[in-house]
Amino acid sequence: MDNTNRMNFDMNKEKKRFLLFLVVGIVLLFITFCLSLIAGRYKMSLNQLVNAIFTSDASFDTERSVIMLLRLPRSISAILVGAALSVSGLIYQELFQNKLVSPDLLGVSSGAGFGAALAIILGASMLYVGLIAFVFGLLTVALTLGIAKLFSKNTALILLLSGVVVSGFMSSALSMVKFFADQETTLAQITFWLMGSFEYAKMEDLKLLFPLIFIGTTTLVVLRNRINVIALGREDAKASGVSYDVYKYILIVISTLLTAISISFYGVISWIGLVIPHIVRLAVGRQTQFTIPITIVFGGIFMLLADIICRAFTASEIPISAITGLIGTPIFIAILFLKKQVVKLDD
User: Fold this and answer.
1) CA–CA separation, 54 vs 309, rounded Å?
2) CATH says 3-346 is which class?
3) Most Cβ neighbours (<10 Å): which of 202, 219, 314, 323?
4) Are the CB atoms for 70 and 202 separated by under 8 Å?
5) How far, in Å, CA of 226 to CA of 220, rounded?
6) Using one digit for the tens of pLDDT, what is the confidence trace for 52-108?
7) How many CA atoms lie within 13 A of 127 on its CB side?
8) DSSP notation for 107-144
9) Which residues of 321-340 are buried (b: 16+ CB within 10 A; e: fewer)?
């Protein structure tokens, strides 16, 4: 088999694998979504769920209210945020050719956390807390990009190091805000916000959250073939006729906006943007034309499962980052072990 035929064979194999995982992922997402509507401190059966949604029987008014006012908005929010953070992590990892980076690489999470803490200590309402968190997240990334521009060689490594520096500064500023916060009231609010939660998700949130995340993720899906070229580096991108700098900043802006909007609504959520891209690459390979759609679907599934655990097994709400960390850590270790085995087999 010559090289051309081998490449075509490998591509067809990857396409079949992609379609398989896409179909399986969509089915799992639907099942998890239904489970999310049933699971919680208020017990509900599948029959009650069906009757509450598809009938007008007054005897199911309580279930209908629980679903429509509480579980439906938080389930949709979890899918959207899971998709946004996962695909942002994938883009950052491909852009910087570093599989250990996550969506907060350029400081968006630390900046948003500082903004939210500052708003809480000043007594702002939750609406303004989210807005200020969003603005500070974007300003922090802008500062990172500005610092990187000061260097004559604005490489991916310089940008990464600038992000580390700015993130460290914003984390220190956050620590100062927490130090001056009231120990019995505002400090607890800041701490809980920083760990993330979908507890207060409302349908009103989705009027802004859904279009922004839909537009962002759809744009990345449209650009998925170009992302492969950008990931090869500046010289290879130029050789392929692709403007490296233009697309690099477009991808950074979209990924940052997706991360910032997610954080501003539901707080800082860790691990998902790091773990899901690795899982997807093990499943369907490195081609972003395949990994981006699968990452969006599996990110939604992962976040839904984490949210179910947060509210279904304890009397009070568990912060979402606590669960994503507990789940994400062993998964990541398992991924590293599997990749080690793959390397040994290739050798």
Assistant:
1) 27
2) mainly alpha
3) 323
4) no
5) 10
6) 988 888 888 899 999 999 999 999 999 999 999 999 999 999 888 877 788 788 889
7) 4
8) SHHHHHHHHHHHHHHTT--HHHHHHHHHHHHHHHHHHH
9) bbbbbebbeebbeebeeeee
Does pLDDT of 346 surpass 50?
Answer: no
Hey, how many other C-beta atoms are within 10 angstroms of the C-beta on 229?
A: 18
Q: Which residues of 156-167 are buried (b: 16+ CB within 10 A; e: fewer)?
A: eebbbebbeebb
- Whether residue 334 has pLDDT greater than 80: yes
Cα distance between residue 242 and residue 155, in whole Å: 17
- 326: helix, coil or strand? helix
Q: How distant is the alpha carbon of residue 19 from its chain centre?
A: 22
Q: What is the DSSP string of 207-220?
A: HHHHHHHHHHHHHH
User: Please, which residues have CB within 8 angstroms of residue 212's CB and are 6 or more apart in sequence?
Assistant: 257, 258, 261
Domain boundaries, the chain: 3-346
pLDDT at 245: 82
Determine the Cα angle at 223 with ends 148 and 79, to 5°.
90
Amino acid found at 58:
A
How many Å apart are CA 92 and CA 133, to the nearest integer? 21
CA 193, CA 267: separation in Å to the nearest integer?
5
Give the tens place of pLDDT for each residue, 303-314: 999 999 998 888
Query: H/E element holding 53?
Result: helix 46-54
Angle between helices 244-266 and 203-222 (to 10 degrees): 160
Per the structure block, which two tokens stand in for 165? 């520096």
Closest CA to 160 of 96, 85, 103, 88: 96
